[in-house]
Amino acid sequence: MFRDLDIDNCNKIDNKYNYTYTIAKNGIMDRFKELAAFVAVADAGAFNAAARKINLSPSVVTRVINALEERLGVRLFTRTTRKVVLTEAGEGFYEDAGRILEALNEAEAHASGAHQQPRGQLTVTAPVLFGQLYLVPIINEFIEDYPEIEANVLFLDRIVNLLDEGIDIALRIGALPDSNLFVRQVGHVRLVTVASQKYLEQYGVPQDPRELVDHRIVNGINLSSRSNWQFSLDGHRVNARINPRLTVNTAMSAIDAAVAGGGITRVLSYQLTDKLRSGELVEILSDWEDREMPVQLVYPEGRRAPAKSRAFVELASSRLRERAATFAAM
Length: 330
Fold this sequence. Notes:
CATH class of the largest domain: Mainly Alpha
Low-confidence stretches: 1-29
Helix content: 25-40%
CATH architecture of the largest domain: Orthogonal Bundle
Largest sheet: 7 strands, mixed
Strand content: 15-25%
Number of domains: 3
Radius of gyration: 25 Å
Order of helices and strands: HHHEEHEHEEEHEEEEHEHEEHH
Number of strands: 13
Oligomer: single chain
Shape: elongated
Number of helices: 10
């Protein structure tokens, strides 16, 4: 149907569906590859990010999408200076394209055996302390179960862009913005206000958050405002003013200072489970902490994810749910 392509004028590169893009000066492209380019842009929400993901230039990806829209006679994306959003027609086409590509991937994977057997490099990210406490044992179990897996783990106290930074799975704490990512909730954590028994005996136990203004506060700037802490009781929110005597940039520093009797601090429940159990720290104002923050596994491809990602999500979900009460400090 198509005449032979001039190889000297083509770009060939694997994309996330393991297809090869072949773009010639006459603009002809295999429709499966065209669909994969469209899905990459929809998933990334930007031409530049999609281009990086599939190792093509943004101008090439833009031409591909423009040609697709012209051929279909419909606008698939609404472009702004900051992002690319699917139109109503684009959303419907995205679902259909996804099903077509998934069917093709399934056929290829079953033929090669790759769909059944997890293999290759798996990149996972999580907050530093949560990852050290809860994910390391799971990752060790996973690579023991699957000898062909090589794990790359990034423990970072910042939100990373999965597509831009080549992350397969991220563990996130807290509410997530709307996106095309798939989410598996595995538990929750909560804010916990604590102090040492020594401090409480010397300075008294506050019964209301508004009493904190008269107490010595150890404040962690990564989690809290410098001037107030928000509490909630039966849906009623209270902004409690604080006057920090010590401000630190890590939760563990705040916890260590509180254990030493330096004052009252407030951190996430999973960060001090052992200190509460040992009695080194005592929880206060627990009636005013009725908000829960979801703990979630986030990944970009859902059912189309490779076997390595799906297998890890299943294992991690099971293991984390078994320990959910622990990191919630319940």
